[in-house]
Amino acid sequence: MTGLFKDVVIIGAGASGLGAAIRLRQAGITDFAVLEKGPALGGTWRDNTYPGCACDVPSALYSYSFAPNPSWTRAFAEQAEIQQYLEDTAARYDVVPHLRFGVELLRASWDPARAVWRLETSTGPLEARVLITATGPWHEPLMPSIPGTFDGPIFHSSRWDHSVSLAGKRVAVIGTGASAVQFVPAIQPSVASLHVFQRTAQWVLPKPDHYVPSAERWLFRTFPFAQRLLRKAEYLGMEAFGLGFRHPRLMRLVEAAGRLHLRRSVPSAALRSTLTPTYTLGCKRILMSNTYYPALAASNVSVHPTAVSGFDGGAVIGADGTRVEADVVILGTGFKILDLPIATRVHNAAGQSLADVWQGSPRAYLGTTVAGFPNAFNLLGPNLGTGHTSAFTILETQLDHVISAVSALFNRNWSTLDVRPEAQAAFVTAVQSALSGTVYESGNCTSYYHDRTGRNSFNWPWSTARLRRDISPFNESAYTITKSLEVVR
């Protein structure tokens, strides 16, 4: 065998991959590598450096439970602080030596004869007993197919071109999702004109953000229980939204707050009409901003309630015939949330990729393991997304399951773990049944929660408490287990 062998290989060094690495070390599993195709750790927080980039989950909740950060300077942390937190945490828990930067996974193939994953990477071959994919759903930009050519600079918000000065420029923004809500107010004061193309008016709620005074940070450093109490309070506040997602009628109360926020922020009745959503709040991702509406109401901003149908030299053409001359185009068009690029690279014993098996509709047992792909675990996988908790909470819940499974594999002389198809099917059926009554399915909107078959393969339909109860335990009866074979290294 040429190349290297590891007990575990993790793909991706964002929050998920780093969390997996830390938990492996805590479990006494140290023969692992984290492959990261980029030049540094951080994942989405390394990539997204657009002006105004910040978290839309409270800072105290947006962190590993085992590594609280008492030094957040804002109630909702900004990109640079989150990136620094991830770097500091990786160093603190001694996982940096396991990171391999500039190494891209090209193909992973399961070898049933030797019970190993054979990996082809950009720097050579590698083998592992266990494969953990931690590439996340907010990784690969969704680039729209727009006819024609645009003469000036054009870039996606997650690949912000900082070499392009926007000062005094005519800028067109395509898309009004979570990223645009942050960067539009950040660039509006400096541009000559800003044209925002909006296919769907979004609900935008006030953001309870504020600077965290040094005295409060001192309190958190000196008395850690104080920050734990804050984290618990923020958790309960987010869970209240979860009730509305499961009982859409409750969202009417929150919608009233959204309408009041719009009315107070936008003096023009015509613009308010353009910005008023027609779907039930929660059907799409909830957005929060105190500055987005005032930016759209500024004299140098025009909102065009239309999709973009093409480019024509220096012009952006709307589907309604609108023609806007622009110097720069910025795409705020989101990510390949459910059409994950990693799915085309991971193959079972028959040579089928995850993408082949899924056929555009991702399915996994507990959002984590897929039948026919032994010893492989997918972090932040299908049907684990919620609008009412932190990705760190979901991640740590999954890691309880994954680390228990991997530890059992190594400690109990097992060769393979492969989730039973019937266990996976039962989970998928239960989730789809429970989703039917949620706002995700009844809110009268089109969202990235639905895959290209029209099925919701993103959302978790229950509470976070149930997520922990159902996902955390490793139930070996749900898996087909084979005893250990001699692994050739």
Describe what you observe in this structure.
It comes from Kribbella antibiotica. InterPro entries: FAD-bind_Monooxygenase_sf (IPR051209), FAD/NAD-bd_sf (IPR036188). This is NAD(P)/FAD-dependent oxidoreductase. It holds the Pfam family Pyr_redox_3. It is a single chain. 31% of the residues lie in helices and 19% in strands. The chain has 2 domains: 4-140 and 336-483, FAD/NAD(P)-binding domain, CATH 3.50.50.60; 154-211 and 217-331, FAD/NAD(P)-binding domain (3-Layer(bba) Sandwich). The longest helix is centred in the middle third of the chain and has 23 residues, at 224-246. It contains 14 helices and 20 strands. The mean pLDDT is 95. The strands form 5 sheets. Strands 1, 2, 3, 4, 5, 6, 17 and 18 form an 8-stranded mixed β-sheet that branches. By secondary structure, it is an alpha/beta fold.
Brief overview, please?
This is NAD(P)/FAD-dependent oxidoreductase. The protein is an alpha/beta fold.
